[in-house]
Amino acid sequence: DLTHGRILYLEDVHVSFDGFRAINGLSIDIAPGELRCIIGPNGAGKTTMMDIITGKTRPQRGTVFFGGTIDLLRHGEAEIAQLGIGRKFQRPTVFEALSVHENLELALQGSRALRASLWGRLSGAQRDRLAEVLTLIRLQDRMTRSAGLLSHGQKQWLEIGMLLVQDPKLLLLDEPVAGMTDQETERTAELILTLKGRHSIVVVEHDMGFVDRIAEKVTVLAEGAVLAEGTLAQVQADERVIEVYLGR
Ligand code: ADP
Questions:
Q1: What is the position in ligand 1's atom list of the atom closest to the CA of 224?
Q2: Can you give the residue range of the structural domain that contains 108?
Q3: Cα gap 54→177, rounded to integer Å
Q4: Does 72 share its domain with 53?
Q5: Distance 26 CA to ligand 1 centre (A)
Q6: What is the CATH number of the domain that holds 36?
Q7: Is the CB of 89 under 6 A from ligand 1?
Q8: Are residues 172 and 231 located together in one domain of the fold?
Q9: Is the CB of 111 under 6 A from ligand 1?
Q10: 117 lies in some domain
Q11: Test site for ligand 1: of 10, 14, 20, most ligand atoms within 8 A of the Cβ
Q12: Cβ neighbours of residue 70 under 8 Å, at least 6 residues apart?
């Protein structure tokens, strides 16, 4: 069975928008614990691929399996999140009026947390996980601060933390270092490398320095399908990859 042993398995997936083939025979598989970077020019289908995995977009054709046996095409968006797929969009969407800690509690508990007064209602295991995540995202000394007062980079880490408290099996990160300073970018690389192994991670990113820092294996998308796969050095040396980036 081809899907066996893969955390994520897409085969011959097709998505058209009003006849335009945004995803055109996409096949990709990710091993458990793998950290994969997806690159490709604008319009290659990277966002649509993430939308397919999270159930936001339904392919007209193809196979999408998670965890070896779960057919994602049989599940809706909310169910897919429950199955252990966490997605971070490019722009941070933290609750600015709430503290760092409250944002993480909310992510742990859902909207019920708004009514209960928070810290006391968490289980011991939840409290441990929250403390662990605060350390991972390096916001432990800012946990009572309003999220709105954080820097752009800190907001992005908080949002990653909001996914991590739910301990997702698969983490999807859309341009996690967009708009970050060099130092924030380096800290984000360290964070992602720390997460590797415990979580399978798919990162869509344009910053090649960052990709080089974190990725073992890179997948290049173009025109809705895989153009090349390998180390960053391998794909960057590929004539076809050079061509799509130069737009010839
Ligand atoms: P990327 O993220 O790699 O830049 P996208 O997945 O956003 O690429 O888009 C792939 C192609 O599909 C683009 O040409 C885009 O214009 C088109 N597309 C994406 N979403 C829609 C939509 N909802 N309706 C029509 N066209 C879309």
A1: 10
A2: 95-149
A3: 21
A4: yes
A5: 14
A6: 3.40.50.300
A7: no
A8: yes
A9: no
A10: yes
A11: 20
A12: 83
Residues with Cβ within 8 Å of residue 17, at least 6 apart in sequence = none
Write the DSSP string, 100-121. HHHHHHHHHHTTHHHHS-HHHH
pTM of the model: 0.93
Contact 36, 217 (CB under 8 A): yes
Say if ligand 1 is within 6 A of residue 40 CB: yes
Considering only CA atoms, which residue is closest to atom 6 of ligand 1? 45
State which ligand 1 atom lies nearest to the alpha carbon of 41.
Answer: 3
Q: Whose CA is nearest to atom 22 of ligand 1?
A: 17
Q: Whose CA is nearest to atom 25 of ligand 1?
A: 17
Tens digit of pLDDT per residue, the chain (248 long)? 566 789 999 999 999 999 999 999 999 999 999 999 999 999 999 999 999 999 999 999 999 999 999 999 999 999 999 999 999 987 778 999 999 999 999 898 765 545 455 556 778 888 899 999 999 999 999 999 999 999 999 999 999 999 999 999 999 999 999 999 999 999 999 999 999 989 999 999 999 999 999 988 999 999 999 999 999 999 999 999 999 987 75
Query: In this structure, are 71 and 12 located in the same domain?
Result: yes
Structurally, the chain folds into a number of domains equal to: 2
